[in-house]
């Protein structure tokens, strides 16, 4: 009896699913064993007129309410029947403005969002977006051909992925540094070109360039820096030596004063014994 009521309630929910205005509800299930459906809310990605977006227009599908167990790979598999997919990206919140996209790194990316996410699916053709909005479902996230790991199996995979490959990490660091040095050289060359050139209002930007030149990365410069550090270290050691000598002289002076005090005490005792000590 209880099972029948649950099936009837699930059927009524799937017949008329409330969704936000302008969105299409796409039912999904984690596996065939799951009875209730979860709903993704999708629409074509649009921005206000005059606002630029980092996602290509008319080919990007924007999805809300993406569950934590739904990865980028599984989301790509769910929508693969709609057409060839160019890229899939999950985020914590939507992009409201144009943001320069840097290449993603598997080593330095932040940790995945533990809760629900939003997704951007870029198709190669506009027909993929229209086909995705016409999906009926329910779609299965985890199937025999494309299983999605959960529970302790997922924890084991996450731990295995957390162990970094030193060679791959070094290769990515080298690539990043080459790109960074190239970017800095371009910015420096641009600053040199604009130096001393007045802007539209006739103002000239004054910089500190030339007062203190950047230290060149040469072997001679490195040797000069090492020699300078060596002289500073020797001067510090000399000062410490004089301080140690000063402390030794103080200790010797105190020892002499104690010795003289003991001698005076013995002389006074001797004079008292001979009745020659007259302090007044």
TrEMBL record:
Entry's localization field: Cell projection, Cilium; Cytoplasm, Cytoskeleton, Microtubule organizing center, Centrosome; Nucleus, Nucleolus
GO BP annotation list: ribosomal small subunit assembly; rRNA processing
A cellular component annotation (GO) from this entry: UTP-C complex
Superkingdom of source: Eukaryota
GO molecular function: RNA binding
Domain Rrp7 RRM-like N-terminal: 22-80
Domain Ribosomal RNA-processing protein 7 C-terminal stretches: 162-280
Database matches in Pfam families: RRM_Rrp7, RRP7
The entry's keywords: Cell projection, Cytoplasm, Cytoskeleton, Nucleus, Phosphoprotein, RNA-binding
Biased composition (Basic residues): 1-10
Annotated region (Disordered), positions in chain: 1-24
SUPFAM superfamilies tied to this protein: RNA-binding domain, RBD
Assembly notes: Part of the small subunit (SSU) processome, composed of more than 70 proteins and the RNA chaperone small nucleolar RNA (snoRNA) U3. Interacts with NOL6; required for NOL6 localization to nucleolus.
Family: Belongs to the RRP7 family.
Cited function: Nucleolar protein that is involved in ribosomal RNA (rRNA) processing. Also plays a role in primary cilia resorption, and cell cycle progression in neurogenesis and neocortex development. Part of the small subunit (SSU) processome, first precursor of the small eukaryotic ribosomal subunit.
Name of protein: Ribosomal RNA-processing protein 7 homolog A
Organism, scientific name: Erinaceus europaeus (Western European hedgehog)
């Amino acid at each position: 009896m209880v099972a029948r009521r649950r099936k009837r309630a699930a059927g009524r929910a799937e017949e008329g699913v409330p969704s936000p205005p302008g969105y299409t509800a796409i039912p999904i299930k984690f596996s065939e064993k799951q009875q209730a459906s979860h709903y993704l809310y999708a629409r074509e990605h649009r921005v206000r007129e005059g606002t630029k977006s980092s996602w290509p227009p008319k080919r990007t599908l924007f999805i809300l309410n993406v569950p934590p167990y739904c990865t980028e790979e599984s989301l790509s598999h769910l929508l693969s029947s709609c057409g060839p997919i160019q890229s899939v990206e999950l985020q914590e919140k939507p992009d409201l403005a144009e943001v320069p996209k840097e290449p993603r790194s598997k080593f330095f990316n932040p940790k995945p969002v533990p809760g629900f996410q939003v997704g951007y699916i870029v198709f190669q053709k506009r027909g993929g977006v229209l086909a995705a909005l016409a999906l009926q479902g329910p779609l299965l996230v985890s199937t025999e051909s494309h299983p999605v790991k959960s529970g302790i199996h997922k924890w084991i995979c996450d731990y295995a992925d957390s162990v970094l490959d030193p060679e791959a990490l070094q290769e990515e660091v080298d690539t990043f540094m080459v790109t960074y040095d190239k970017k800095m050289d371009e910015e420096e060359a641009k600053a040199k070109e604009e130096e001393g050139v007045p802007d539209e209002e006739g103002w000239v930007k004054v910089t500190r360039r030339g007062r203190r030149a950047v230290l060149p990365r040469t072997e001679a410069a490195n040797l000069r820096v090492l020699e300078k550090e060596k002289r500073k270290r020797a001067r510090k050691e000399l000062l410490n030596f004089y301080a140690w000598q000063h402390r030794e002289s103080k200790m010797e002076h105190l020892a002499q004063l104690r010795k003289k005090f003991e001698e005076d005490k013995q002389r006074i005792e001797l004079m008292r014994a001979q009745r020659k000590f007259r302090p007044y």
